Amino acid sequence: MGRVVVILTTAAAVVACSVATVMVRRRVKRRRKWRKVVGLLKELEESFETPLERLRQMVDAIAVEMQAGLVSEGGSKLKMLLTFVDDLPNGSERGTYYALHLGGSYFRIIRVHLGGQRSSLEVQDIERHSIPTSLLNSTSEVLFDFLASSLQRFIEKEGHESISSQDVKRELAFTFSFPVKQTSLSSGVLIKWTKGFAISEMAGEDIAECLQGAVDRRGLDIHVAALVNDTVGALSYGHYHDPDTIAAVVFGTGSNACYLERTDAIIKCQNPRTTSGSMVVNMEWGNFWSSRLPRTSYDIELDAESLNSNDMGFEKMIGGMYLGDIVRRVILRMSQESDIFGPISSILSTPFVLRTNSVSAMHEDDTPELHEVAAILKHLGVPKVPLKVRKLVVKICDVVTRRAARLAAAGISGILKKVGRDGSGEGVGRRRSDKQMMKRTVVAVEGGLYSNYKMFREYMDEALIGILGEDVARHVVIKAMEDGSSIGSALLLASSHSVRTISNI
Ligand code: ADP
Ligand code: MG
């Protein structure tokens, strides 16, 4: 009996020891895996780092590139496109105007009525629709017929008070969010598609003519009277409400900026013939490039797999179309190099499956158990990850978005430096007489990324203060303009009805 007890006790001890050994081994393995993940996270943080010193170097690089792009055509990756907009709306405009806005993800149609005073601006109707993905690589005819048919429906639902009953042709501004070489306020040719659009045989075509043709084929009584870059629309809207507005930036699917430049600084345009002595310049800043940009292996892979590789490098670090995909790439790499996310999900390997709105939802998840993060990961084929892994995902979102917002702040500061509103002196490529005390300076900002992503806004504001210093930043007002691009284009059309063609560029 005694021997049996001894044997059983020994056996139990052996089992206990083995179980303990297995558990310890597992724990050691788990710790090792976690340490690997912590190492990967550290690497990630380092490669995405944007210290102030580096941001300031970028500010200088942007101002220098802006100058180079103004001196000669092709002088910089920044195209610094002329817009032929010199007088911005001021509130005195009158009449009823339309705008059709083709963005990267949405198109919008609006009708505004202007009564001659700022306070009488009335947005009578506004429609916002997702752009069907089938259009992105369709044909010019399909795209413009789709836009014309949407316009037709918009007009058909107008009531009796509509402009048509007064027998006046409708005047429409076409707000276009892709690079165009303008030949006048009402015409311009497409330089290239961006943001995932790939409609062949359109580069070099007059965009306003394409829309007018589609509108005419449907027999609509609409005159496409202005072709307006979306940033220029936002600037117009900003200026309408606040004359201190000197620049506008869009943070939506893509990113771009425009600003008011003195004509004597636009050296590549010999005779801009503006009455105001200034002209709005569309920077097309999405294509900015500098060796100071913190380019990581994720950016390189994203670019290589994109439809427009070696192009739009800045946009690919800050545009809403891309942030989700950068986060996806980081999670995928971590799941390949450690199994903390479980078996590798095939969904996670699909480009663009993680959208930036999901990134902000995860980043701003304030539930103690991070339920939102868990739900989004589940959608990505990564169910049931422990809380510490969910926290890691939040951290990844933070790292990617913080870099984007800080680079965005450097971009804005670059414009301020160029025009001498960064507190450092007279500006780049401007006469010494421009040196002046820091004036109140308003930058209009528009776009779904900016308006919907609080952490992006907060990081951008923080970096602006860091770059400019509190004393200067106090004079810089960032003003959010919802639907500013569309409304502002209609305002711009109202304010500059006369169309001039300048050919001596
Ligand atoms: P468009 O680029 O077509 O003019 P928007 O300015 O509305 O349209 O921007 C849409 C983009 O904004 C989306 O593609 C997405 O990248 C980003 N976005 C929209 N909602 C959110 C959100 N909640 N959080 C973060 N980004 C968002
Ligand atoms: Mg937009």
UniProtKB/TrEMBL annotation:
SUPFAM superfamilies: Actin-like ATPase domain
Record keywords: ATP-binding, Glycolysis, Kinase, Membrane, Mitochondrion, Mitochondrion outer membrane, Nucleotide-binding, Transferase
Domain Hexokinase N-terminal: start-end pairs: 41-240
Record carries keyword Nucleotide-binding: yes
One biological process term in Gene Ontology: intracellular glucose homeostasis
Pfam families, A to Z: Hexokinase_1, Hexokinase_2
Pathway in which the depicted protein is active: Carbohydrate degradation; glycolysis; D-glyceraldehyde 3-phosphate and glycerone phosphate from D-glucose: step 1/4; Carbohydrate metabolism; hexose metabolism
Cited CDD domains: ASKHA_NBD_HK_plant
Chief location: mitochondrion
Gene3D superfamilies, A to Z: 3.30.420.40, 3.40.367.20
Membrane topology classification: Single-pass membrane protein
Source domain of life: Eukaryota
UniProt domain Hexokinase C-terminal: residue ranges: 247-494
InterPro entries found in the cross-reference section: ATPase_NBD, Hexokinase, Hexokinase_C, Hexokinase_N
Coiled-coil stretches noted in the UniProt entry, renumbered to this chain: none
This protein's GO CC annotations: cytosol; mitochondrial outer membrane
Record's subcellular location: Mitochondrion outer membrane
EC number: 2.7.1.-
Protein family: Belongs to the hexokinase family.
PANTHER family from the UniProt entry: HEXOKINASE (PTHR19443), HEXOKINASE-4 (PTHR19443:SF6)
Protein name: Phosphotransferase
Protein source organism: Brassica carinata (Ethiopian mustard)
